């Protein structure tokens, strides 16, 4: 935006958390008009100003060159330049870019910290099961706490579901599942169609919850329970919700987490650099490429087997101090906000 005060005030009212940016092109166009009266405008003033605005790499460098610019051309009393300097955070490239990079780094750092805290919580706390269904324990063992709570809502919703066989053709069965859905004023009965293949352990519901949110719905779980299925097919346990899966971006070198602070990140960086060199050499010939892929598959299998042998299975060892299966994890206390409580607020007449 340009330096329109009305627009700036409107943005601050409608978007109070947003900092508007002035258009640098408009500002630079005004310089000849605002400084045309200066005798040195055509003898170096313009080029000096452009170097100050465009060529500075740090905020300190801009402050230094701006002060030299004012001293050289005796512009300390120029009202328009004073207003520009007071609002330099809105238009000077080096200040806006630095702020963006700092905020972006803070956002990434916060994301990684939140994920590390969630991983620690998932591995050191266990939400108790609410049923004796075998597949609930499978979800409890592999899913993060947040995702397992979502699955438990679907398991609890199985109480309101009634599955009955509609059609059976060999290994393929079609069920109609009646679900009681609670709305604002009443409870309505909705029928969903569930496809089930017994040979391939494939189940699909017309509600589309798995396709939309990546967790199995109460209707599909009801059919699995009706068919006395004791396990969950691996394809219905997505890696993105597993607590034993480490996100790849946490192993990438970043400006806020030095390699020396994380040995795993350091090893990952060394392996990636070496693999890039080997891949470049192996890609020149087909037989070299095939040979490299074969050895990578062998090494990956060996490393995976070694990790499974050295890593204790969580949830199976009763002596593991990190398992708190008998402790129910409660939500934090809700702090009452200011103002009249919702239950005592006046209801409008309309």
TrEMBL record:
<dbReference type="InterPro" id="IPR031052">
    <property type="entry name" value="FHY3/FAR1"/>
</dbReference>
<comment type="similarity">
    <text>Belongs to the FHY3/FAR1 family.</text>
</comment>
<dbReference type="Pfam" id="PF10551">
    <property type="entry name" value="MULE"/>
</dbReference>
<dbReference type="GO" id="GO:0008270">
    <property type="term" value="F:zinc ion binding"/>
</dbReference>
<keyword id="KW-0862">Zinc</keyword>
<dbReference type="InterPro" id="IPR006564">
    <property type="entry name" value="Znf_PMZ"/>
</dbReference>
<feature type="region of interest" description="Disordered">
    <location>
        <begin position="310"/>
        <end position="350"/>
    </location>
</feature>
<feature type="compositionally biased region" description="Basic residues">
    <location>
        <begin position="335"/>
        <end position="350"/>
    </location>
</feature>
<keyword id="KW-0479">Metal-binding</keyword>
<comment type="function">
    <text>Putative transcription activator involved in regulating light control of development.</text>
</comment>
<keyword id="KW-0539">Nucleus</keyword>
<protein>
    <recommendedName>
        <fullName>Protein FAR1-RELATED SEQUENCE</fullName>
    </recommendedName>
</protein>
<dbReference type="GO" id="GO:0005634">
    <property type="term" value="C:nucleus"/>
</dbReference>
<dbReference type="InterPro" id="IPR007527">
    <property type="entry name" value="Znf_SWIM"/>
</dbReference>
<keyword id="KW-0863">Zinc-finger</keyword>
<dbReference type="GO" id="GO:0006355">
    <property type="term" value="P:regulation of DNA-templated transcription"/>
</dbReference>
<dbReference type="InterPro" id="IPR018289">
    <property type="entry name" value="MULE_transposase_dom"/>
</dbReference>
<dbReference type="Pfam" id="PF04434">
    <property type="entry name" value="SWIM"/>
</dbReference>
<feature type="domain" description="SWIM-type">
    <location>
        <begin position="192"/>
        <end position="228"/>
    </location>
</feature>
